[in-house]
Specification:
16% of the residues are buried. The longest helix has 22 residues, at 2-23. By secondary structure, the protein is of the alpha+beta class. An eight-stranded antiparallel beta barrel has the order 1-2-3-4-5-6-7-8. The N and C termini lie far apart (45 Å). The protein is flat. The protein has one helix and eight strands. A hairpin with a 3-residue loop joins strand 1 (25-33) and strand 2.
Length: 142
């Protein structure tokens, strides 16, 4: 009985590790109108839990015309939901000012059982965020 329980726990831990491998990586989104406006987002989810986010905005006639915003912290996954958190003491400084606390995103990918030719880009869809412009925003995996 102990052997069966140990094997089941081992298999369960393997599936948890395998799932986290799918989430880690680089995500990006670029929105632009040629010669006028550019908005770029880049999110890196590291395998061991930290994340780094960069937002670049260039607006014609904007004050200032170019804006860079950064955020960092930790992420964790449960099912297909990713929760972001930032520690006010460790993750904030003059450069890193975005607060990702209360931010959650859904990991969206094509279901392995789906045998159709439909193309589904792997992405994170932000459902909630303390950053208003991140809500309902999709960032695609590279």
């Amino acid at each position: 009985m102990k052997l069966i329980l140990a094997i089941l726990l081992f298999i369960f831990n393997l599936t948890l590790c395998a799932q986290s491998n799918n989430f880690a990586g680089d995500y990006t989104r670029s929105l632009s109108e040629e010669g006028k406006h550019t908005i770029e987002y880049k999110l890196t989810l590291n395998q061991d839990g930290p994340f780094v986010f960069h937002s670049y905005t260039k607006m014609q006639g904007g004050i200032p015309p170019e804006v860079n915003k950064y955020g960092k912290g930790k992420w964790s996954a449960k099912n297909n939901m990713i929760t972001f958190s930032t520690n006010k003491q460790d993750d904030f400084d003059e450069k890193y000012t975005l607060d990702f606390n209360k931010s959650t995103a859904r990991f969206v990918t094509k279901n392995p059982k789906d045998k159709t030719d439909q193309i589904v880009k792997t992405r994170l869809t932000f459902l909630e965020s303390g950053i208003p412009w991140m809500q309902k925003n999709d960032i695609f995996k590279i």
